[in-house]
């Protein structure tokens, strides 16, 4: 099922609560999204056979208040992180939509099957994952991720033994602050040159947002403040001009707990 079909199903399908997910700082629910006539109408007659999906639902009313992020904005940042990942064509963030649910408006994100005992710290230094981890590092710099824990890097369980392990990123509620907030466990590329193809993608993203028009800019403008969107464009320019992965900034640059 491609991303467009998945997002349509997440947006319009029927939501059925399965239960609360443990160890979350905010109220987070595992849900089933089932096809219905609204999904069929949105996709038309040419869509492939549809099956229900598992997803993660984070309602706005369940967001824990934070002193440095506007109340009720965390679910919007989840969607914004997905949009930036898709604009870069990196496919790092699972399909994420905003919609009304059983507990009100919130984010709904495709659930990724994974082993919770496998995360960044279990693959750190493995060169096979380096290309994906470079993209992850750059995305976190761009969105100013204040909480990239090791456990927020999921290793998708392959459908077959020969399928290449794919990394996915979750939990982007505290990103996009206008002030420098980057806290991450992934610093293995600090100070090294950004590969040219990745730099080209970031350059294109900057050009797209510089026009201050178009679907991406318009939606990000609804999800983020003007100051946050300006700061995003500034971070893009910095990476393009310097061409290197940044080194740790002042103060605490690791999240806590790190996993």
Structure description:
The chain has helices at residues 3-12, 37-43, 74-87, 120-123, 130-143, 196-210, 215-223, 226-242; strands at residues 14-20, 29-34, 53-59, 96-101, 104-110, 153-155, 167-169. Helix 1 (3-12) runs antiparallel to helix 2 and helix 6 packs antiparallel against helix 8. By secondary structure, the chain is of the alpha+beta class. It folds into two domains: 3-71 and 94-110, no CATH class; 120-242, no CATH class. The strands form two sheets. It has a five-stranded antiparallel sheet with strand order 1-2-3-5-4, with helices on both faces. The protein has a two-stranded antiparallel sheet with strand order 6-7. It starts with a helix and ends in a 17-residue tail after the last helix. Helix content is 35%, strand content 15%.
Question: Quick gist of this model?
Answer:
By secondary structure, the protein is an alpha+beta fold. Helices cover about 35% and strands about 15% of the residues.
